Amino acid sequence: MYAEERQQEILRLAREAGRVDVMALAEGMNVTAETIRRDLTVLERAGVLRRVHGGAIPVERIGFEPALAARDAVLINEKERIAKAALAELPDEGAVILDAGTTTARLAQLLPSDRELTVVVNSPVLASALGLKPNLTVLLLGGRLRGKTLATVDDWALRPLAELYVDVAFMGTNGCSVERGMTTPDPAEAAVKRAMIGAARRVVLLADHTKIGNDYLARFGTVGDLDLLITDSGVDEELADDVEAAGVRVVRA
After folding, report:
1. Do residues 45 and 176 lie in contact, with contact meaning Cβ atoms separated by under 8 Å?
2. Beta carbons of 176 and 212 less than 8 angstroms apart
3. Which among 250, 216, 253, 215 is positioned nearest to 233, based on CA atoms?
4. CB 169 within 8 Å of CB 200
C-alpha cells in the first residue's frame, strides 16, 4: 500500500469510528508506529485530522478549524490546478463573487487583467491583491473580520449581497457531501456563503479532494445549488460519482 493510499484509509477509519489509535493502525496495516505517526502528521497538516494522545480525531468531530496560514501551506499544487481550471468559467465581462479561501485566493492571483470585471469579495486579503489589477472593479464587503479566515461576516456583509446579482460565484468550502451539502465550521461564515450563492446566476465550487465527503457544523448550501465542482485528481472516484449523479458536473484538475 502506497503512503497516500494508507493515509486515505486512515482518514476513512477516523471518520467512521470518530478516532484512530496509532498502535492499532500500525498492527492492522503491518507498518511501524513511526510510519503511522508520520501519516498522521501529513493528515494533520492537510487540515483533516487533529493529533491527540495516542492517535487522532477527524476535525469535523471537534469543530476544529485550521487557521488560514496553515491551510494555505498544504495541497499547493492541487489548489493551483483547480484555480487554473476555474479560469475557463470566468465571463468575458460582468461581475463575479470570489469567496474567501486559500483556493479562491489562487484564482484571484490568476485573474486576467484584460477583462472588464467587477469582483465582489469578503476578504481584505483578496481585495488588496485584486486592487492592483487594471480593468477590475473590486467591491469589498464590510462586516466583522474573522481571525481564522480573514473573511468579513455578519450583517454588514449580508446586506449588500441581498442587492447584488453576479454572473458567477466562485465558492470555497470546508466540506462537501451529497448527504449534507456544503458545510463550514462557523455559522456566521455560512450565512455569508449562503447569501453569495443566492446572489449568483451560476455557482462554481473550488474544493480539493480532502473536502469531498467531509462534513462540518454549519450548512450553507446543497449540492443541488452547484452548477460545477472543480476538484483535483486525488478525489475519491465514488464520491465524485455521487456528486455527478446528483446532477453536478465535476472537473478533476
Report:
1. no
2. yes
3. 253
4. yes
DSSP string, 229-253: EEE-TTS-HHHHHHHHHTT-EEEE-
The DSSP symbol for 27 reads H
Model pTM above 0.85: no
Sheet holding 181-184: strands in order across? 175-177, 181-184, 218-221
Per-position pLDDT tens, the chain of length 253: 788 889 989 998 988 887 899 999 999 999 999 999 999 988 888 878 888 778 888 876 555 455 444 444 457 889 999 999 999 999 999 999 999 988 999 999 999 988 899 999 999 999 998 998 989 999 999 999 998 888 999 999 999 999 999 999 999 999 999 999 999 989 999 999 999 999 999 999 999 988 898 888 899 999 999 999 999 998 889 999 999 999 999 999 9
For 202: left if phi > 0, alpha if psi spans -120 to 50, otherwise beta; the answer is beta
DSSP string, 107-142: HHHH--TTSEEEEEES-HHHHHHHTTSTTEEEEE--
